[in-house]
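Re: that backbone. Tokens:
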């Protein structure tokens, strides 16, 4: 699943075909490490995403727009000053490196034509977007890299730009048979590993594909191949490189089993090593990247944005779980209280016959009819021992009464925090975090910025909306406030309510339209309740469902906490791949 040199080559071809000669119409920086360029060319408008994210570096065309910050970052302002309305002269890829170089022509302050370079390095944690002049001098970059960070290359204004060569890899497009044989068969390692460790731009997936096309075992040691096997590997490598040289790209994603199927790999060339029924072909590398990385990118970004909230919830949850465990242990200890009461009562009844200085006293237990041995403090009289046991009893009784309420409160708080944690997992956009942050403020875990008199943040997040296969509207709460709103204000008595049994998750409401629901709609709603719960990763999840009129909110209950006593249950797979979501 690497964004390798061959994928970059396919991206370069697509961008070059679409954007060369076009004008840079708008420049935005929606994320600290991401640019969104709007380019007009041949009567069409294109949006180009360039991301230097350490976890998901990307470059692709998209139809979607992104909200930009109110104040543009300095790097964005610099690009607007120099290359907005500039014309893209060329888009190139040096060798098979994971680099795209945009040469852009523009007019300077004096009205003279100048050329600048926007260099996008898509190299994992070393990814960057670097702005250079025509002499390869760095004007600025989206990430500044000093000598303290990297001993290989500084990326700072005024420094000369160069591509660092940290690995001894050859360009596969310029490799002949002799060089190939020398590099691959000089040592002894698995064939696929020998390929991607010897040549720039090859990922493990493409290396496996070359071995498959050669008819060999990718894990077989290169030293174990005979002359025919070596020749077959060279020919498969050469033919695949011919596809890249002639730009015959055929992007595809391959899937592994599961419900829904999970993307296993992608490549800019057809992965024939996978069955055709597990492969999805794309006409555009941008369409492939957007589909493959859209969800991953969303999850990564929202986790970054919610990291402070996750830390607060995690810390509070850990503290409350420890408190709850301690309270439960203390509750266990209070079970001895009735034994001490019985000791005291029996000593008051029969203690007159106890011998002075005795360490124990045996008498009949009139509650059970059996003989009972009572430990005694030999320095005390029977009456004083009885008083001591009654004091122990009363102390444990008070502890039990206090802990009975405290364990309920702490248990409810643990349940509440787990539900907030589940809401953070469900959140897909920054606006989804607003209500979660508000709930943490109301619960005392966060302080409101600006003090108590500050205004609450405006809420724009709304529940998920799906349409069942039979055309019924299904709504899914994203957090506790939305769950409460859906259940007690939005839903009517005859609508149906669903929730994963015994685990944190969303409230799911099906609008019944005043009639009976088809069985398939019950299953669709149950699948949503299972999917939007902590049980998402399980094969089957038990889901409770009942009419909304049977769901009640207990007095003083936390947001989203409900009780119900009349319900049905079903086991369901958390697979919502066939459900239509309304945006």
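Recovered sequence:
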């Amino acid at each position: 699943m690497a964004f390798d040199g061959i994928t970059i080559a396919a991206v370069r071809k697509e961008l070059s075909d679409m954007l060369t000669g076009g004008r840079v119409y708008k420049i935005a920086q929606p994320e600290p490490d991401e640019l969104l360029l709007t380019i007009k060319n041949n009567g069409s408008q294109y949006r180009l995403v360039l991301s230097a994210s350490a976890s998901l570096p990307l470059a692709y065309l998209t139809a979607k727009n992104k909200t930009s910050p109110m104040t543009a970052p300095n790097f964005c302002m610099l690009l607007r000053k120099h290359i907005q309305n500039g014309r893209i002269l060329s888009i190139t890829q040096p060798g098979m490196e994971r680099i795209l170089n945009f040469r852009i022509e523009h007019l300077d302050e004096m009205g003279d034509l100048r050329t600048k370079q926007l260099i996008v390095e898509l190299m994992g944690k070393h990814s960057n977007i670097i702005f250079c002049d025509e002499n390869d001098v760095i004007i600025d970059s989206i990430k500044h890299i000093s000598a303290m960070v990297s001993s290989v290359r500084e990326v700072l204004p005024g420094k000369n730009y160069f591509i660092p060569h940290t690995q001894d890899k050859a360009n596969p497009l310029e490799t002949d048979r002799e060089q190939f044989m020398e590099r691959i068969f000089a040592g002894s390692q698995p064939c696929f590993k020998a390929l991607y460790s010897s040549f720039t731009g090859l990922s493990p997936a493409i290396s496996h594909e070359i071995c498959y096309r050669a008819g060999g075992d990718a894990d077989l040691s290169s030293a174990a191949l005979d002359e025919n096997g070596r020749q077959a590997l060279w020919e498969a490598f050469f033919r695949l490189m011919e596809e890249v040289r002639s730009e015959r790209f055929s992007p595809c994603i391959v899937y592994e089993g599961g419900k829904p199927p999970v993307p296993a790999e992608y490549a800019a060339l057809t992965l024939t090593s996978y069955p055709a029924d597990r492969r999805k072909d794309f006409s555009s590398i941008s369409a492939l990247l957007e589909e493959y990385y859209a969800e991953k990118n969303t999850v990564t970004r929202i986790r970054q944005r919610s990291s402070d909230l996750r830390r607060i919830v995690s810390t509070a949850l850990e503290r409350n779980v420890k408190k709850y465990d301690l309270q439960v242990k203390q509750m266990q200890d209070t079970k001895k209280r009735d034994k001490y009461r019985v000791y005291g009562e029996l000593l008051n009844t029969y203690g007159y016959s106890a011998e002075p200085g005795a360490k124990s006293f045996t008498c009949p237990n009139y509650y059970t009819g059996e003989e009972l041995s009572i430990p005694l403090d030999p320095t005390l009289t029977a009456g004083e021992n009885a008083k001591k046991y009654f004091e122990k009893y009363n102390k444990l009784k008070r502890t039990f009464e206090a802990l009975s309420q405290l364990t309920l409160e702490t248990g409810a708080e643990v349940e509440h925090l787990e539900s907030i944690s589940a809401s953070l997992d469900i959140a897909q956009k920054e606006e989804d975090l607003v209500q979660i942050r508000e709930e943490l403020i109301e619960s005392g875990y966060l302080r409101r910025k600006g003090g108590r008199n500050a205004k609450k943040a405006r809420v724009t997040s709304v529940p998920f909306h799906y349409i069942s296969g039979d055309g019924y509207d299904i709504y899914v709460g994203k957090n506790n406030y939305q769950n409460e709103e859906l259940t007690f204000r939005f839903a009517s008595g005859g609508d149906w309510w669903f929730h994963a049994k015994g685990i944190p998750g969303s409230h799911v409401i099906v609008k019944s339209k005043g009639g009976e629901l088809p069985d398939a709609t019950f299953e669709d709603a149950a699948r949503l309740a299972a999917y939007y719960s902590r049980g998402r990763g399980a094969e089957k999840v038990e889901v409770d469902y009942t009419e909304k009129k049977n769901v009640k909110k207990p007095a003083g209950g936390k947001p989203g906490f409900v009780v119900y006593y009349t319900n049905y249950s079903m086991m369901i797979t958390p697979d919502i791949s066939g459900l239509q979501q309304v945006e």
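The chain has a mean pLDDT of 90. The chain is about 35% helix and 20% strand.
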